[in-house]
Write a structure and sequence with these properties.
Hypothetical protein Ta1206 fold; 4 helices; single chain; five-stranded mixed β-sheet
Amino acid sequence: MPIDLEHLDIFFYELGSLPLIVLKCKRGYIATTYISKEMAEKVGDVAGFVKGVKSIDDFMKAKLKETTTWGENAGIRDGMTVKRAMEILNSEEIQE
């Protein structure tokens, strides 16, 4: 089933060789690695990160390469698709 991009809270900005993309969810976010996992860890963000994508379409098809500790606690994992991570971070309950 295709993802309805019009109803997503997504930020896209052309920056250098690759774009900065951030998908805001109810309980965290998924972003390209222009956002630092180390800083996200320091401030306690629930977050997952993807690398090397050039478009929103690529981003939505990508798999997470990194997650914060709080992201893992919320149920997202490295290797999980962005679509699945988005579903988890938009759900009301924490996934085990």
